Structure formats: C-alpha cells, structure tokens
Amino acid sequence: MCLKTDVLLLADVYENFIVISIKNYGLNPLNYVPAPGLSWDSFFEKIKSKARIDNCFFYVNFFRRAICGGVSMITTKFSKSNNKYQKSHAPNKESKFMITCM
Predict the structure, then answer these.
(1) 90: which residues sit within 8 A by CB, 6+ positions away?
(2) Of 3, 6, 33, 63, which residue is the least packed, with the fewest Cβ within 10 Å?
(3) pTM > 0.90
(4) Tens digit of pLDDT for each residue in 34-77?
C-alpha cells in the first residue's frame, strides 16, 4: 500500500512538473537526458535570447565524463600491481596491471 501511494504521488508530482515546464518555458523535460540541459535551455527561453549556444558540446562532455565502463568488481581483499612502469618492479614475477577509471 505504501509503495503504491509513493509511486502514484511521484507520478503526480512529475506530471505537474511537465505541465509547469511546458507552460512557463515551452520545453518538455522528457526531451532532456540531464537536468542541466533543461536548465540551460529554460534560461535562454526566459531571457528570450536569439543567440543560443549549441548544447552539443555540453552533452558530449556530459556523456564523456559519465563513461567509466563495464562492471566494477573486486574479487580479492588485496591486490598488488607489478609492471615495468613501477619503481618496485620485480622482473621475475608476472606483469600485473591495475586499471582505474577516474
């Protein structure tokens, strides 16, 4: 019962947000992936600017920063890398690299 109520309330709030956004700015939030894109366009709609900067750069950077890739998993409690780029490289042991995404 509580879950159903929460879902219905959230749907009602979001539908009202869509109606208000269309009425005030003429923009449908469902057409925007990140919220900053909607804010950016609503800013230009509000100031009635004819010179609009292309959002393509914003979206490309947004997705480029978001791509970290794949499944992240730790299978052991401790792991130590060993490769030729480290000062503590042990050539008699197997080379081992650690990849991080920042």
Answers:
(1) 82
(2) 3
(3) no
(4) 788 888 788 777 777 665 555 566 666 766 776 666 666 667 77
Structure confidence at residue 50 (pLDDT): 61
Please provide residue 74's backbone torsions phi and psi, each rounded to the nearest 5 degrees. Answer: -115, 120
Q: From the centroid of its chain, how far is CA 71?
A: 16
- Residue 5: both structure tokens together: 């109520």
For residue 23 the two structure tokens come to 């009425």
> Which phi and psi angles does 63 have, rounded to 5°?
-75, -35
Distance from C-alpha of 6 to C-alpha of 1, rounded to nearest angstrom: 9
Which residue ranges make up each domain of the chain? Answer: 2-66
Dist. CA 73–CA 98, nearest whole Å: 12
> What pLDDT does 16 receive?
94
Side-chain-side CA neighbours of 47 within 13 Å: the count stands at 9
| Structure-token pair, residue 39 | 């804010």
Q: How far apart are alpha carbons 87 and 83 in whole angstroms? A: 9
